[in-house]
Amino acid sequence: MQRLMSVKEAAEYLGVSGHMLYQMVSQRRIPYVKVGRLVKFDQAMLDGCLKQNAVMPMPAKTGI
Predict the structure, then answer these.
(1) What does the pLDDT look like over 5-44, one tens digit per residue?
(2) Beta-carbon contacts of residue 47 (< 8 Å; ≥ 6 apart)
(3) 0.85 surpassed by pTM
(4) What share of the chain is helix, strand, coil (3-state, %, to 5)?
(5) Measuring CA to CA, which residue among 35, 61, 27, 25 is closest to residue 11?
(6) Using an 8 Å Cβ cutoff, are 45 and 31 in contact?
(7) What number of CA atoms fall less than 13 Å from residue 59's CA on the CB side?
(8) Pick from 47, 54, 50, 30: which is nearest to 7 by CA?
């Protein structure tokens, strides 16, 4: 079983502040796990969320 990340670890992993991460949790914009009163994060779930929300570049226009 994979170890769950703390808020601090997940914030560092995602490159956001802890405050921003808590906002994302309260808005249910990011997957998390509740362990009692603690909020924890599974890295595989975070990776899937990032992949699902990735914005791909537009193809280059040709012939003007």
Answers:
(1) 999 999 999 999 999 999 999 999 999 999 999 999 999 9
(2) none
(3) no
(4) 40, 10, 45
(5) 25
(6) yes
(7) 3
(8) 30
Give, as one character, the DSSP assignment of residue 1. Answer: -
Calpha distance 6→13 (Å, rounded): 10
Q: How far is Cα 18 from Cα 15, in angstroms, rounded to an integer?
A: 10
Query: Six-digit token pair at 53?
Result: 């929300």
pLDDT of 35 reads: 92
Do residues 29 and 22 make contact, with C-beta atoms less than 8 angstroms apart?
Answer: no
Each as own residue / partner, the long-range contacts of residues 50-55 (CB below 8 Å, 24 or more positions apart, any chain) are 50/14
Residue type, 31: P
Phi and psi angles of residue 30, each rounded to the nearest 5 degrees, phi first = -145, 140
